[in-house]
Fold:
Amino acid sequence: MIPKVTIIIVTWNGKNDCLTCLESLQKLVSYQPSIIVVDNGSTDGTARAVTEHFSGVTIITAPINLGFAGGNNLGIKRALAEGADYICLLNNDTEVDPHFLEELLLVAREDPRAGILGSRILYHDRPDIIWSQGIAVNRISGRIYTTYNNRKDSEVSGIITEVNAVSGAAMLLKSEMLREVGLLDEDYYLCFEDVDLCLRAGRMGYKIVTVSSSRVRHKVSGSMGGEYSEMTVYYATRNHLLVGKKQLQGTLILRGIRSPLIMLYTLLFTVVTSGGPRGPKLRAWQHGIRDYFRGHFGERDG
Structure:
């Protein structure tokens, strides 16, 4: 029996990227999924443009920007209510290979415990370079990082690998897993809600795997101003700490030293990507630390 698959794309003022992503989905082979676009309070005419160019796509319009987690949860609830067997989260700033969904489903149907599956994600402007093939989580230090980042695609052999987490930029979810584990945690708003979901699923016995034959090209944080933008620094810093608090266990001593280590890792990331220890990115890092400790989650205020 052919499974029912729904692809969910959340977009916020990214009309051109969204239309390009949808164009690439028209070239899929073997499976013709349902597609839901969640327009996260856009003001650039995204919903109208999608309706004009892609009549078969379902549009859900959110009154405000609910973030990656909140926007996807709107789509996930609709897909589950309509009986989807699998739900694929796909960033609006991606373009997919025609076989990307077919390859994910092949592995998912062969392994009943594979609850979350991720693609090999390549840089859009450097399609021969890997951005991510899975995410590693050090359960002692709390460090979270993408694997095979900046490695040449040709140098990393075709593999199906069990990992700690995969990126929500291209993530296939089994509906039965979502019903058991729950949806994305909206405290995160942006960044690391995918890691949180994967860790919860893994704790409940589901496998998290990457499928290298499923390929996606990604503009990387296109809606956040770029891979190393101030917004990325803020959410990555705050939410890195939040993953440690919510999902990583350990003794009181270990939990006591984990937060300072995460702050050090994220500070080093900020300094390296900003070219020095001063400037707006450092302030964004400080803001993320401050909001974590005062318990301010969801959307950044100011």
